[in-house]
Amino acid sequence: MTTTQQRTALVIGATGGIGGEAASALVRHGWSVRALTRRAQPAPKTAKGAGIDWIEGDAMVAADVARAARGVQLIVHAANPPGYRNWGKLVLPMLDSTIAAAKAEGARILLPGTVYNFGVETFPRIDETAPQAPATRKGRIRVEMEQRLKAASAEGAPMLIVRAGDFFGPHAGNTWFGQAVIKPGAALKSVTEPSTRGVAHAWAYLPDLAETMARLLDQADRLSAFEVFHFGGHHLAWGEMTASVRRVTDQPRLPVMGFPWWLVMALSPVVPLFREMAEMRYLWREPLALDDRKLRTFLGDVPHTPLDAAVTASLRGLGCLDRPRHEEATAFTPLEG
């Protein structure tokens, strides 16, 4: 679907992985994109960040968000405290600022969702209608976020949620892939498998996810006031991600390490980050896939970059492979699946 009317979006969290990819995807799809940031951003050296109007402000300050959102038709709420820090104190107030701005402008909110909402009773394959009864604090916060968004959708701020598995991509350093599976910034000496042996896991390549979101928004006239989709991404059996890393680095004997869950659990009472990680261990001990039949019915073809190509771009972006002479690996290449 094409449109001749200029569309304007505000992205909150554009310096992060999914926020940055969403901003770039929207620019490709003809949107005028603003991004709220607490610090002035330098001119981009690559395709990522090009065409984005950076506005200084704080997502915790409702007046800053309202000012940045003036006249927009879309707010992408991709704000996420790094390393799980201060989730309880920051996540909901930031969302409330977005909701207030969206209601004032009559703008749609796009939320990149997670599987935190769901308990193991809904595994191994989760669709959009699965009951939400999380056993974790972050899961309960996610449920509360969606409840607030649903209420806002009945008050003039339509909502689009796209839930996905664990993120990876060329600009996704603050993720399990970028911090646990590999060590960024240098050639790899080992690769780590966080899952329990034999357990499959859901992964989402961020350029694919962001392109999917942009395509959904291109058909906004078909979306309901409160719309939820699941993005299937890469559903990988145990060892498939690490095998791909070995292939693309041309290191067939690259050591594969088990994740030190024993250490995380032992130190979780005294190390805040480990406590937050330990809470999410269940996602690596149980098989998990997102049922994306609704999305495929709606869009038809869904962006799906082959695993080795996605891992290559991710490792390059995270400084683990030599960079090519140009930056094409950091831009989305539409590969349909």
UniProtKB/TrEMBL annotation:
<dbReference type="InterPro" id="IPR001509">
    <property type="entry name" value="Epimerase_deHydtase"/>
</dbReference>
<protein>
    <submittedName>
        <fullName>Nucleoside-diphosphate-sugar epimerase</fullName>
    </submittedName>
</protein>
<dbReference type="Pfam" id="PF01370">
    <property type="entry name" value="Epimerase"/>
</dbReference>
<dbReference type="InterPro" id="IPR036291">
    <property type="entry name" value="NAD(P)-bd_dom_sf"/>
</dbReference>
<dbReference type="InterPro" id="IPR051783">
    <property type="entry name" value="NAD(P)-dependent_oxidoreduct"/>
</dbReference>
<feature type="domain" description="NAD-dependent epimerase/dehydratase">
    <location>
        <begin position="9"/>
        <end position="229"/>
    </location>
</feature>
